[in-house]
Design a protein that fits this description.
Length: about 375
């Protein structure tokens, strides 16, 4: 197995010396995605869905400093649509990281597609403060010799890494009726255990069954750094992107509007995404994070001639020792979602939260507009 930081790449030929050394150190091969299972027949979208559903563990495996930007990032070029599997940002490298997922063996043509995607990102997303974007092709299998030839004359920085997943083979349909079910096996094993049980064993089993029935994993406190980072860099950023899409037409009705992150009541309006994430990292190291959230503001209703119109809406993630609550701050506080820190957010849950808050905002704006008549 390769050592960390030894994935096949062309970083030394495509990045400045100091930057390439850091990039080589930060990426590794292989990545261990053993926190979920896939069938042998899984496709790239199945792998992508699994990684996003387990985004916290995925970012931990990728290493420190990675921030999740989004999945299936859409770009239009000359009338054609292109979609990037996963887009990350690295705070230390100050660059976008494009991930392309492949469930099969590496093919040389993958580098051409990645080179094209990196050009799109550098042209459409990269600012003057960002370093060159890096592409990582994640393949189930690869030949390092083939990778070396494929990357030799490529101008964009690209690495190719393997990954390890718990693959399972599906049971053929014609055998399913002849095999014992999980419940059958459990009942037979339980009968064997009952014969040899002591009174204390029965109490331990009863306690174990009670704990299992709760359906909960070990709780972790808010001070756990990875939990705070994942809530801010994944959940909040994804929620903001979804809300921007939902409220696009609403924002166009105002002279000025924005949706920006908050941390401990501080609003970050004039900072780029990676600056906000860096500021949050500093805040979490120096202070106890009591809340994070988003602030949506709408100024100057175009159709009413009310330039002084101001409508602010805040959605907060308020932290306690082992739980946090999500809800709007104005005009009154409600609890919409309550979660433990060991519970992750699915894409469906974030979309539902975005829809609910958008509905809240639209109702509030309508009431505010009514008062301007």
């Amino acid at each position: 197995m390769r050592e960390k930081g030894k994935l096949p790449n062309n970083f030394s030929n495509t990045l400045p010396a100091g930057h390439s050394d850091l990039a080589i150190e930060l990426f590794k091969d292989p990545y261990k995605f053993d926190f979920f299972q896939l069938s042998e027949e899984a496709k790239e979208r199945d792998l992508e869905n699994a990684l996003v559903d387990h985004i916290s563990r995925f970012l931990v495996e990728m290493g420190k400093g990675f921030a999740y930007i989004g999945r299936q990032q859409h770009f239009e070029h000359e009338g054609k649509d292109y979609y990037i599997d996963l887009l990350l940002y690295h705070l230390k490298l100050h660059c976008y990281v494009v991930l392309e997922l492949k469930v099969g063996e590496f093919k040389s043509e993958y580098t051409g597609k990645m080179n094209f995607y990196l050009s799109l990102i550098d042209d459409r997303c990269k600012t003057g403060e960002d370093k060159p974007s890096i592409g990582i092709i994640l393949c189930r299998d690869k030949s390092d010799v083939t990778v070396e030839y494929a990357l030799r004359d490529v101008r964009k920085p690209i690495g190719v890494a393997g990954y390890e997943v718990n693959f399972t083979k599906a049971i053929p349909e014609y055998l399913k009726g002849d095999l014992p079910t999980i419940e059958d096996l459990e009942q037979e094993l339980q009968k064997e255990v009952e014969v040899h049980k002591k009174p204390i064993d029965e109490k331990i089993d009863a306690l174990r069954n009670f704990v299992t029935s709760l359906g909960k994993t070990e709780m972790q406190p808010v001070e756990h750094e990875d939990i705070k980072d994942n809530l801010f860099t994944y959940t909040l950023v994804d929620l903001k992107n979804k809300l921007d899409n939902i409220l696009g037409e609403v924002k166009a009705m105002f002279l000025d509007s924005w949706i920006v992150p908050m941390c401990n009541g501080n609003i970050y309006k004039e900072m780029s995404d990676y600056d906000i994430l860096a500021e949050f990292t500093i805040e979490s190291e120096n202070n106890i994070i009591g809340s994070i959230g988003l602030c949506a503001a709408f100024n100057g209703f175009k159709f009413g001639g009310a330039n002084a119109f101001v409508s602010n809406h805040r959605l907060s993630f308020s932290f306690d020792n082992f739980r946090y609550w999500v809800g709007p701050d104005n005009p009154r506080k409600e609890i919409w979602v309550e979660k433990r820190y060991d519970e992750t957010w699915s894409d469906t849950e974030i979309a539902a939260l975005a829809d609910r808050w958008a509905d809240w905002i639209i109702n509030d704006i309508r009431e505010d507009v009514e008062r301007t008549k």
